[in-house]
Amino acid sequence: EWTAEPVSTGTTIMAVEFDGGVVIGADSRTTTGAYIANRVTDKLTPVHDRIFCCRSGSAADTQAVADAVAYQLAFHSVELEEPPRVRTAARLFQQSCYRYREELSAGIIVAGWDPRRGGQVYVVPMGGLLLRQPFAVGGSGSSYIYGFLDATFQPGMSRSQCQEFVARALALAMVRDGSSGGVIRLAAITEDGVERTVLAGSDLP
Amino acid sequence: MEVGAAPPPFWAGGPAPGQTYIPRALGHIDIGPRGTGTGPATLPAGRTLSPMVTGTSVLGLKFSGGVMLAADTVGSFGSLARFRGISRLLKVNDSTVIGASGDLADFQHLRQLLEQMVIDEELLGDGHSYSPRALHSWLTRVLYNRRSKINPLWNTVLIAGVYGGESFLGYVDMLGVAYEAQSLATGFGAYLAQPLLRAELEREQDRDRLPTQEEARELLERCLKVLYYRDARSFNRYEVATVTEKGVELEGPLTLEANWDIAHVV
Fold first, then answer.
1. How high is the pLDDT of residue B79?
2. Where does the record place the catalytic residues (chain A) (predicted)?
3. Residue A101's closest chain B neighbor by CA?
């Protein structure tokens, strides 16, 4: 019965790095069982000015962890007196996700830009592993697009190519996965800032 | 604890006489799981009861002059080959390599512990470094103690090294079971690769020697190929670590060539 189901961001999330930043994207559906609790969710959560996380798994768990990490990063950044590294943010996520692995249901992709290493994508899947990848996908919808990604991904894509790649991949996943849908939220994070776009309805590839 | 307060019960969380026994983890705070107020208690932080991203077999073989480990580079998320570029072999110091199968988040945790240990030891600057046997012993204690707290590190680890002119190959698993042998394999490898490794060693034993480095390398690659054919969670990219008197050499990622000729015959 739906009241017993946890609210989940059954999802498709994705992040790709390019020279100068990252492109991140997510669908916008939050489900409790088969009911869509929120059809315009924002799963791209900032944890710092140039560092975002894409959340999949339990909505409550991921929001709680993201809030905690955002707080820790803010503190750390003040102490450091410079923008925090993406790797630090990812490591903070990993520490919480690994420590509480049996209690949490959280698959997170951390992506952003920092002055030291440029655009980076880190994945913290369930279980609390930390891995850096040129691109990462997560969430229930990701299963349906592994083939597409393997066939289409090429290293060294430009920013606009990455945006198109992410949009196409997410659209394909959203069509096939019942737990993903709604609009595609994209964000491009670079040194100059964060540019957010929404692809809805007829804009979807 | 305040002075005069009663000591905590010796067996905390045990069954109340006459009541249904719902096992509760020792010493945890009673928080109901999400969504419900009652029911079996959730477990304390960090307990690995279900491995998530896992690695499959690791193979180990002694040869004349050293020891060799081999493992593929995939992290499986159930049946999905999710992370295809993960290294499961770790160079601990100039005389030891370890290879792990099982939960890779736990392996990363082990890796951090080991790297810190090695750094602390270098800082001591006394010229001593951990021997493979010492590391094997340490790992055994850590894994056994974790299992005794019902909080295992869900890994099976092979330790390979050369120290003081002697080569060492040891095995520890998540229960703390530990032993040494001339050839070892974890996971599927224990069923498929071990017989091949042992057969080769017995053949060599008749001539009173261990295989050469090239022979060992060829044998391990042959075993990896068999595993690739028959283990559904394997991958054809792998790494090899060789430890000799000269030190540790980590090669990879290399790709296996598979032979599908029999497909035309069948």
1. 85
2. 11
3. B46
Q: Which whole-number Å values give the CA distances from A195 to A43, A82, A168, A189, in the listed order?
A: 15, 21, 18, 7
Cα angle A81, A84, A87; round to 5: 150
Domain span at residue B185?
Answer: 53-253
SS3 B191: helix
The mean per-residue pLDDT over the stretch A163-191 comes to 92
User: Rounded to the nearest 10 degrees, what angle do helices B132-148 and B104-124 cross at?
Assistant: 130
* Total tally of structural domains belonging to chain B: 1
| pLDDT computed for residue A37 by the predictor | 87
Are B39 and B51 within 8 A, CB to CB?
no
Domain assignment of residue B2, yes or no: no
Residue B169 lies inside a defined structural domain of this protein: yes
Q: Is B247 a member of any domain?
A: yes
Query: pLDDT per residue over A138-154, tens digit each?
Result: 999 999 999 999 999 99
Distance CA(B58)–CA(B194), nearest Å, equals: 11
- What was the pLDDT predicted at A42? 92
- For A13-24, the pLDDT digits (tens) are 999 999 999 999
pLDDT digits (tens, 9 = 90+) for B6-18: 666 656 555 666 6
Average pLDDT, integer, range A78-103: 94
Candidates A123, A129, A140, partner chain B, best to mutate (most B CBs within 10 A): A129
Residues of A in Cβ contact (< 8 Å) with B75: 129, 131
Backbone angles phi, psi at B24, to 5 degrees: -120, 140
Q: List, in order of start, the domains of chain A with CATH numbers.
A: 13-203 (3.60.20.10)
